[in-house]
Write a sequence for this structure.
């Protein structure tokens, strides 16, 4: 078997129960013609407002090996016809998981999933070929897609499992059947749908329902929800990580600076030191979780530690960039991908660590908080006052924060990110550090784009931007 062939025609038919119009084999899987590679099987998923069937003909024109469809499409050609393309993708995921002979780690949690997943990718790559989810692919199509893309010769697979609503994690975990399941943290994200922090903890803990026999659950030792998580994981072997004295992977000491931290960690009695080039205590917690995952897979933590020294924050999740403004430069902290109370506090703390003349925060609404929304926003006032010299906000919920901070640090409040973006870009001066953050749906990327458009230098540094 050529290991570069991801799916043979026979496997596609066997896995999905569908029929092919002519035999073909796929080297990869695509659900989006904008990122399609020649040789991919294009899967025509039906999304909100968009139906992939409309792109099937284009996909074939672009060199797709075939297209998985459930409706008639204009063009004939190498098609895999199934009853339902989402169910077909899910079956591919399940089949690929049975085919996979390596070890699978799954990551869930209220914050830090993608970062921890990428840290695990970095760490596990030191031991063997590692496949991991793209970006934040963590939902009912993202998890099966990750599984179905697992190369034949992969030794490790890292999946991210997320949720918006109760009941979403367990079935995805049962599909992924992890050997190691990590809960990074429990915080008030999506609390509007879940109702309480306890309900969020229960939902995160349900990842253990998919664990393989003798699988290991990795839980956050510092979380007030640990007892609840433990109770839910009672059928599994449990390992913990954190600063608490009881943690199996324990932070002994850390020194934070503007660019990262120096960490001393005790991993089941084995001590190690690590320079992490991603600032903030939250990054330390993510790296502990990743190291716990490595240890749970029976691998040598010291090799993982060495690999993790190369880790840098991801785009939209703490990536850093210098922007030329006037004759000076502005440090841009791009946190535009995600916003909730826990991640806001983590990012504000990183801003506080920056040795600059003026610290600016540009914050957009944190969504999906339901009734807790107003209090969660206003409740950030102390953290903002401790870290920020000038606050810009946008959105109806952030108005509550803007009004709650001392007048001296109020910059400007706008209705939305589009209105705020040019105002922020104009306000920046050399020697500033500017943090941009909000829920993805608040569109804070517009502010990032406006700041980057104002960049008068061609020189960029530090991080994937
Ligand atoms: N352990 C942590 N504790 C608190 N905040 C964190 C932690 N890790 C990351 N963050 C913050 O959360 C943001 C999002 O990080 P990341 O993308 O890793 O999380 P995620 O759980 O994958 O999010 P999503 O639910 O959007 O997929 C980061 O930009 C950072 O501000
Ligand atoms: Mg994510």
């Amino acid at each position: 078997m050529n290991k570069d062939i991801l799916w043979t025609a026979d496997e596609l038919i066997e896995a999905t129960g569908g029929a092919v119009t002519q035999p073909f084999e796929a080297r990869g899987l695509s659900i989006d013609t904008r990122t399609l590679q020649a040789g991919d099987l294009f899967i025509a998923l039906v999304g909100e407002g968009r139906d992939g069937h409309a792109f099937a003909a284009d996909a074939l024109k672009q060199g797709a090996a075939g297209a998985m469809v459930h409706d008639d499409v204009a063009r004939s050609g190498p098609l895999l016809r199934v009853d339902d393309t989402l169910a077909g993708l899910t079956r591919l995921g399940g089949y690929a998981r049975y085919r996979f002979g390596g070890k699978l780690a799954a990551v869930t949690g209220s914050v830090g999933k993608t970062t921890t997943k990428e840290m695990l990718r970095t760490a596990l790559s030191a031991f063997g070929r590692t496949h991991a989810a793209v970006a934040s692919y963590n939902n009912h199509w993202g998890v099966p897609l990750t599984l179905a893309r697992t190369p034949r010769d992969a030794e490790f697979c890292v999946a991210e499992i997320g949720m918006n609503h109760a009941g979403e994690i367990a079935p995805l975990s049962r599909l992924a059947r992890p050997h190691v399941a990590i809960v990074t943290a429990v915080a008030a994200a999506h609390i509007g749908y879940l109702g309480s922090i306890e309900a969020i903890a229960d939902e995160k803990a349900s990842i253990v329902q998919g664990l393989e026999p003798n699988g290991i659950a990795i839980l956050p030792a510092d979380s007030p929800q640990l007892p609840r998580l433990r109770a839910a994981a009672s059928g599994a072997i449990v390992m913990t990580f954190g600063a608490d004295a009881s943690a199996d992977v324990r932070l002994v000491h850390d020194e934070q600076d503007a660019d990262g931290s120096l960490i001393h960690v005790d991993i089941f009695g084995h001590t190690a030191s690590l320079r992490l080039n991603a600032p903030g205590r939250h990054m330390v917690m993510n790296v502990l979780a990743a190291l716990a995952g490595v240890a749970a897979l029976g691998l040598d933590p010291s090799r993982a530690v060495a690999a993790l020294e190369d880790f840098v924050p991801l785009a939209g999740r703490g990536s850093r960039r210098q922007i030329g403004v006037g004759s000076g430069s502005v440090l841009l902290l791009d946190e535009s991908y995600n916003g909730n109370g826990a991640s806001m506090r983590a990012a504000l703390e990183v801003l506080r660590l920056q040795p600059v003349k003026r610290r600016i925060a540009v914050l957009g609404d944190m969504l999906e908080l339901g009734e807790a929304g107003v209090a969660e926003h206003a409740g950030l006032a102390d953290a903002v006052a401790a870290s920020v010299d000038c606050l810009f906000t946008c959105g109806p919920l952030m108005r509550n924060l803007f009004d709650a901070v001392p007048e001296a640090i109020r910059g400007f409040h706008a209705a939305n990110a589009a209105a705020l973006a040019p105002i922020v870009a104009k306000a920046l001066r050399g020697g500033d550090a500017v943090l941009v953050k909000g829920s993805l749906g608040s569109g804070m990327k517009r502010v990032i784009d406006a700041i980057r458009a104002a960049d008068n230098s061609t020189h960029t540094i530090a991080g994937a931007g």
In short: The longest strand covers residues 249-257. The domain at 9-82 is CATH 3.40.1390.10 (Udp-n-acetylmuramoylalanyl-d-glutamate--2,6- Diaminopimelate Ligase; Chain: A, domain 1). Residues 113-114, 136, 138, 160 surround magnesium ion (ligand 2) (CB under 6 Å). The CA atoms of residues 43 and 68 lie 5 Å apart.
